[in-house]
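Hello again, I could really use a second opinion on something today. I've been staring at a protein lately and its backbone has me curious. You're getting the sequence in one-letter code plus the fold written as tokens. I'd be grateful if you could look everything over and explain what you see. No rush at all, and the record is pasted right below:
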Amino acid sequence: MRQDVTKGVTIWLTGLSGAGKSTIALALAEVLQKKGVQRLELLDGDIVRQNLAKGLGFSKEDRDENIRRIGFVAHLLTRNGVIVIVSAISPYREIRQEVSDRIGDFMEVYVNAPLEVCEQRDVKGLYKKARTGEIKQFTGISDPYDSPLSPTVECHTDQERVADSVEKILAKMIKLGYL
């Protein structure tokens, strides 16, 4: 059954590297597609950085600019009735608020996992490189992560299954009138 979305929304998944943002984003997109949602876009922070933010580094200014660029694209899509799922570390609270204010129809999803759990899940070895100083300005190690103060949804990925996290997001989308 096809489900037309009349109102777009950006679902912004934020959290440490390895918290489960991309995993939840992909699972959520799959469930929404199975529900017949046609107007859906997934913006993964790593992929966007390679294409839209090429040349930006990892200073606070460059990270903020990267998030602004993702937010700009999400805003354009959202205002045109698209459900946009963003999966990006987006470590700084202030820039997430700026993007939220710009988009309006915005759900902040805090993908919360303890640092130790994220380090255990680290398939790319990034935390290990950050701990040895090989990677500078790594979020959660040598650069801060500002946890959301009052996220729309909080997923504790060390305590719940991916399906549980997706269900929490879907339930909130229904409650807020986006589905």
Notes: The mean pLDDT is 91. The chain has seven helices and five strands. The helical segments are 21-34, 45-51, 60-79, 93-103, 115-120, 126-131, 162-175. The first strand starts at residue 9 and ends at 14.
